[in-house]
Input
Amino acid sequence: MATQTPRQNPAFYALLVVLIFMALGPIVLMIANSFKLNVQITSPTASLLFTPTIQNYETALCHWLPYEPEHVRRCDRTFGRALGNSLIISLISTAITLVLGCMAAYALVRFRFMGRGVTSLTTLMVRMVPPAVLLVPVFGIWTFQFGIDGTRAGIILIYVAMNLPFVIWILQSFIVQVPIQLEEAARMDGAGPFRTFFLVVLPLIKPGLAAAAIFTFRVGWNEFLLANALADRGSRTVPVTIVNSLTEYDIDWGVIMATGTLLAVPPILFTLVASRQIITGMTAGAVKG
Amino acid sequence: MLANANRMTPYLFLAPAALIMIVALLYPIGYMIYASFLDWNPSQRIGEADWIGLRNYTELLGDAAFRESFWVTLKFASIVVSIEMVLGVGLALLLDRELRGMTLLRTVFILPMMIAPIVVGLVWRYMYHPTVGTFNRFLDSIGLPSAPWLSDGDWAFASIVIADIWQWTPFIFILSLAALQSLPRSAMEAARIDGATGWQLIWHIKLPLMLPVLIVTALLRIIDAFKVLEVILVLTNGGPGLSTEILALRISRTASEFRELGYAAAMSNLLLILLLVLTIAMFAYTKLQEVRAARLRQAAED
Output
């Protein structure tokens, strides 16, 4: 492949390098600052050369550490707890969304039944409902009717509901491609519809499930507005704690950059591992509509 | 379609997902429409709130702050989407060739969209910081005066636009590149044999063929631009004054700071209708394209 590539004008490579630098620059800046002390960040002679320190991470994660860092005078458990909440909420909401979403997508693709058209259309329509629109009603219902405000379960419920339409829609396009003969053969061998689905169809749509899982996890991991409205002290997620520590007048940039970096690590890893699936998920709607 | 399945089977597959979407998505939307006719604050149950009919909506019409935030939202969405379309499509046309490093660029370009908007806001807030921020440091180092990035109304608006362009131009780029690479090679070859120059190729072949994808991409971006909240919340929280207070932020503040849930619900309702219209436009357009493509195929076969 590389040997066949015709020689290209070096200007294109220069542009490529500039674009990569512009996209990465702010993120690299945050990661670099997370390894600096505040005096280094704010000093007028800030430079690219500095001795990295993990003090900011020790401050943020103090109650997860087996030792007591010297520079931490009073351990603030807020961030460590939020990290645990974020993990639990994102993982559980992703798992539930995937299981329910692929079952629903399967029904919509493979069966003809009353209400199929309405369900399809509704699913497509509710995909565009933004969190800001759900804020008031979800706060009201969760608080006064369901009594699940302030709980992780309440936050998980709304994330599952918000992600289902997208997951159903994207998995439909993968299920359509599964050869129906495979399912018919399984049926002939005496497998019921549920066994056919879990043992024959699911293994074949793994790439679709991966893309759906990344997008779902990302919503739970990154979302702020609804988490902020629904969480209490014990169920706050990382984005909520970051915004809370930003509103104070004197911002502790080092620690904030460290928490921001920790919040950015999972999405960065997903991107490096599965960029192809992510691009498939993004382009599916527009290019092959 | 599978034959000889039990008539209940599809419903069993669908029921759990449908139940959750009804309880936690459709019911809240209905609830919000109802709430928009109430004078309701967060310390009351919804049953205790007074029914005030259309008063929330009539008040919205005369509310200068709401009108301002509606205008800011429209301005923000149209400016960012126009700039991002030009940059994204332009870059895709420029880089649609076999270059080493394209895979890396595509991977790197997804990052700003994948990391939390809160983190994007955080990074840019640091870079815009009046004294320690990257931009003012740079201006200082080349002897220019500092700029009031987030503290002056017009500057703050430009600043949120710049951050959004950084975050979302890659989306347009990736989609247009995918569209370009799926164009029929034969059309391009034919034009090239006829002696078309690079610009003619772009204007008369590539762009017209990409148009359907570009329109859908732009609509997707407009819908998203109406939903932007977190980056702006972290950068300016709507200020200074109301200069960057987009609709989503206004809704959130009306509910949590001013504690007027009914009024916030009425605003949410308007935003929802706006988004619904855009979404329907997008689907109608995609359907139209499908029908047209099918008719062309039919004609080719006859």
